[in-house]
Amino acid sequence: MGQPECLDVLQALQIDGQYPAVYSDACREQGTGSDLNVNSPVDGQRLGRFSCAGDHQLAEAVSLAQDAFAQWRLIPAPQRGEFVRRCGLAFRKNQQQLAELISWESGKIFQEARGEVQE
Known about the structure:
119 residues; alpha+beta; 3-stranded mixed sheet; two-stranded antiparallel ribbon; 5 helices; 16% strand; flat
């Protein structure tokens, strides 16, 4: 039996199934809190595992987010809009895989998941 279809999608998106809890200040680090498994409501298969952020990591992430917001709000709206446009292009480029992942993760039908990515 081959690997489950959702794992093919995760690999196509370069996601390996073990996710850092904290993404901040260009850093990715494992959480110091408990693990959280993500299981598909479609078949109960484990899609991945997150190690949750610990209290200190959460406080640091909130502080960094507040600092980033203070800097982001000073960037002119056209430049912020260009960044959001590029994010949208990346979503559209990977629309098929993202829709499949949403479908697996949430149990939504594929067309509904695809519409969610499109929005």
